[in-house]
Structures are given as C-alpha cells and as structure tokens.
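FW: tagging you since you asked about this chain on Friday. Here's the raw sequence from the shared folder, copied in full. Didn't touch anything.
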Amino acid sequence: MKKIILIGSGGSGKSTLAKQLGNKLNIKVHHLDALFWKPNWEGVPKEEQRKVQNELVKEDEWIIDGNYGGTMDIRINAADTIIFLDIHRTICIYRAFKRVVQYRNKTRPDMGAGCEERFDLQFFKWIWEYPKTKRPSILKRLNQLSKDKGVIILKSSNEVRLFLEKYDTINS
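HL: got it, structure written out here
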C-alpha cells in the first residue's frame, strides 16, 4: 500500500481515515477538497483538476481522499489500493451535520483556504441520495478492477477501527 485512494459519501470519514493512515504509514495525504475549492467555494475547472491529479499520481507514494467522480479514473488507474467507505447514509448525514456545527464559519483543516463551513442543503441531499445515485456505479467499477489492485470496503466505524489497528501491530 503505497498509492491509496479513499472514496465514499460525504461524511463517511474519508479525510479522517486518510490522515490517520498517512500518520501510520508515513505517507503524504492529499485532500482533493483542499485542492479543488478556491476561496468562497469557487470550484476549480475540471481540466485543472485533471492536471493536478496527473501530477500527484506521479509521486512514489500518496494517499488521496475525495470523490470527484469525473476525474476518479486518474486515481483508480494509478492506485494500488482503493478504500471505499461504504458507511450508512444516516451516519454520514449525522457526521456532516456535526462538522457544520463544529466548523461553522471556519475553514476545516482538509478544505481549501477561504471555504468556511456552512449548511448546504444540496450537499445533504447528495449524501442522502448517494446510496442510489453513486454507490451502484462505484461498486460496479470496483468489481471490474484487475486483481492486482487492492480493494477494501469498510462498512462501519468498527471496521475502520479494526482496519487501522492492523497497522498498529505492523509498525510497532
């Protein structure tokens, strides 16, 4: 595991797991949200997103968290490990709401500068609809990957904890 991507719904814990895994494996973490949002929530054009990701994946080791389905092919093709956080939507909604409260009018550490946390009904709708609109195509894509790619699907906080604990014993 040297080239790792984390995908999943908003609020699934991608950024948190990326940071924890990066610390355990001593691998640099790249949060796509921090790279693809300019101040005041101005999105970076897709061609620039592709350019940035094509450069990132040239590195020897990396952990990249974020969905960005339109450019996911770059990351999936370059990754040796894909971690899909397939967390229930009610948990994701709860976590996203908790994050809004915690960081209200502040910028999260894994977000682009000048993007203050706010309540965004469309984002919560996207999370709620994720199991129907995004999950099936992600699972299909993961099932089509070659066997030399490691695919890890974590469905609960407990599974995430147990997954991380494996790296405590390896690195101690």
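FW: The first helix runs from residue 14 to 25.
HL: agreed, and Strands lie at 3-8, 29-31, 37-38, 42-43, 62-65, 81-85, 150-154.
FW: great, closing this out.
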